[in-house]
Amino acid sequence: MHNNIDTLFTHLWQDYIAITPSAEKVHQLLGKGDDIINDHIALRTFNLEKVALDKLAAHFLALGYEEKGQYNFEQKKLKAKHFEHPDDTKPKVFISELLVEEFSPELQAIVKNMVEQVEEDAVTADNFLYSGTHWQVSSEDYQTLLAESEYAAWMSAWGYRANHFTVSVNYLTGYSELSEVNDALKNAGFVLNTSGGEIKGGEDVCLAQSSTMADKMDVQFSDKKVAIPSCFYEFAQRYKMADGKIYTGFVAASADKIFESTNAM
Ligand code: OOG
Ligand code: NI
User: Fold this and answer.
1) For atom 4 of ligand 1, which residue has the closest CA?
2) Is residue 44 within 8 Å of residue 155, measured between CB atoms?
3) What pLDDT does residue 35 have?
4) Per its Swiss-Prot or TrEMBL entry, what cofactor is needed (predicted)?
5) For a pocket test of ligand 1, which of 81, 83, 164 has the largest count of ligand atoms closer than 8 A to its C-beta?
6) Which residue among 39, 145, 207, 215 is the one 20 to 30 A from 223 at the CA level?
7) From the CA of 163, how far away is ligand 1's center (Å)?
8) What is residue 54's predicted lDDT score, i.e. its pLDDT?
9) What is the CATH number of the domain that holds 81?
10) CB within 6 Å of ligand 1 — which residues?
11) What is the per-residue burial (b if ≥16 Cβ within 10 Å, else e) of 164-182?
12) How far is CA 126 from the centre of its chain?
């Protein structure tokens, strides 16, 4: 486990931009050289004991993060929790896990085989959250997973790493609304996720979100190299609740669509 939050996020960011070349371009476009404040990052895993959500969460709890919210995604067969640090300038963390037992025996067999290859010690090691895959899968296995769960297929190819970072629109200078950010992104040629509309949520649920579609990168499977979706960038604008405090949670109906940012276009 890391003992320093900023070091952990620096490693997560370096790993993320290595497979998400558009992320640095987004920073240049929106940040114009200024620092970008990240609202949150997201991580994915399977609900198998060795690598379950709580194992990933332990890395953040050790750094002072606290569990704040729980979410269910019935159709996608996922559960998620979000974590916040008392220092609200630290990014929030959204961790989801796939409910493996709800899938076909074929999917379960491939996923269990992957997770068996993860060393017990690797899960508590400093670098676990940006350690990528710990297994070998064939491009055929990838396709088998993809037919049932895009999430499972993504995990098989990319493993443990930040699935996205999220620009906090509230802290951007030069933009006051998410729609303006989206316009700037589209004008610069970025492709946005339109599932559920370009903007998911809004002031009524105290959180408006949009995201790019994931970059495509080559993955070396056990048999061959294939170009597949890697990671994306998200944009979030938060609003005040009736009590005047800014909303810090997530919105399941919106998150459900954000997951689709790693779908193939
Ligand atoms: C997480 C999708 C949900 C959000 O902000 O609602 C999410 C994922 O794609 O792993 O990030
Ligand atoms: Ni997100």
Assistant:
1) 255
2) yes
3) 84
4) Fe(2+)
5) 164
6) 215
7) 8
8) 98
9) 3.10.180.50
10) 42, 44, 94, 96, 163, 209, 234, 250, 254-255, 258-259
11) bbbbbbeebeebeebeebb
12) 19
Q: What is the signed CA dihedral for 119, 121, 122, 127, rounded to 10 degrees?
A: -170
Q: Within 13 Å, how many C-alpha atoms sit on residue 12's CB side?
A: 27
- How far away, in angstroms, is 254 Cα from ligand 2 center? 9
User: Distance between CA atoms of 197 and 200, rounded to whole angstroms?
Assistant: 6
Range of the domain at 14: 5-262
- The residue whose CA is least distant from atom 1 of ligand 1 is 259
Question: What are the tokens at 167?
Answer: 């620009």
Question: What residues pack around ion ligand 2 (CB closer than 5 A)?
Answer: 42, 234
> Ligand 1 centre and the CA of 189: distance in Å?
23
ipTM over 0.95: yes
Number of domains in the chain: 1
**Tokens representing 211?**
């995201």
Q: What average pLDDT values come out for the chain (265 residues) when binned by 10 residues? A: 93 98 94 88 98 98 98 98 96 99 98 98 98 98 98 98 98 96 98 98 98 98 98 98 98 98 95
Closest by alpha carbon to 262, among 74, 11, 12, 42? 42
Identify the nearest ligand to the CA of 95 by its number. 1
Which residue is listed with tokens 């629109």? 169
